[in-house]
Automatic annotation (TrEMBL):
Coiled coil: none annotated. SUPFAM superfamilies: Undecaprenyl diphosphate synthase. GO terms for cellular component: dehydrodolichyl diphosphate synthase complex; endoplasmic reticulum; lipid droplet; membrane. Pfam families: Prenyltransf. GO terms for biological process: polyprenol biosynthetic process. GO terms for molecular function: ditrans,polycis-polyprenyl diphosphate synthase [(2E,6E)-farnesyl diphosphate specific] activity. It comes from Smittium culicis. This is Alkyl transferase. The keyword Magnesium applies. InterPro entries: UPP_synth-like, UPP_synth-like_CS, UPP_synth-like_sf. It is an enzyme of class 2 (transferase). Its EC number is 2.5.1.-.
Amino acid sequence: MSSSEFGALADFKNYLGKAFDEFSISVLKQGPVPKHIGFIMDGNRRFAKARNMAPKEGHFAGFISLKNILEWCLKLGVQAVSVYAFSIDNFNRPKDEVEALMELTKQKVCELSENIDFIENHQLRIRVVGRLELLPTDVKEMMHQVNKKTENNKGPVLNICIPYLSTDEISTAVSKIALKLSKKEIKKNELNEQLIESTLASIADCPSLDLLVRTSGETRLSNFMLWQASRGALIKFTNVNWPEFSFSTLLGIVLDYQLTKLGFV
C-alpha cells in the first residue's frame, strides 16, 4: 500500500469514527442527560509508568484527555463539568513533580481559556475552584485571570478544582455562613442544608451533581465533592486510566446513568 493510499484509509477511518461519535451522541440525547458530571482524573502516573515515561508526560496526556472529554460532554448537552485537577494533599508529592504539574497546569488552562472559538461557541465559563492562595504566585495570578476572562459567559461551566479538598470547601462555606450570621445578614432560622449547598464554590450557579466518575480502578472519592456526591449522584468507577478515557468509556457510563434514571438498573 502506497503512502497516499495509507493516508486516505486513515482519513476514512477517522471520518467513520467521528460519524459514529456524532450518531451515538444524538441517540444518548434522546434519554436523560446528566446536567453535572464530576471527574476524578486519576491514573496519569500509572499511565506514564506503564510506558516508561516521566510523570509529567502522563500529566500532559491527561490534559489532552480532559479537552476531548469536555468537548464530548458539551456536545451531549452537559451543563457543568467539574474535574479534580490537584488535591491540597498533592503538595506532599516530590517537589519536581509538583513544580512540573503547576507549570503544565498554568500552560494548559491558559491555552484552553485562549481558545476563543471554542469558548465563544459554547459560551463556556471556566472557574478555578479551590485554595488559590496556596498556588505559586504566577500560577495563582493566571488562575485569577482565567476566572475573570469568562465570568460573564452564560453557557456551560467547567470547574477546575485546584488545589482542592471537599472538607476544605465545606468548612469554607460554613465559615462564610457564620460570618453572615454574625453580621446579621441572615437569620438563624435560615440555616439549613440548602444554604450550605448553595455556598459551596464548586456548585455555585451550577446544577446539582448527577454523576461522579473516577478512573484508574480506585474505588474511593479521595475527598472530592463529598457533599455533592451524597445528594443522590450516581458514582461510577472505571479501570481505565485518565489519559486512556475514550468516548466509548463515556458512552457506557452515561448509558448506565440513563438506565438507572429510567429504573432499569
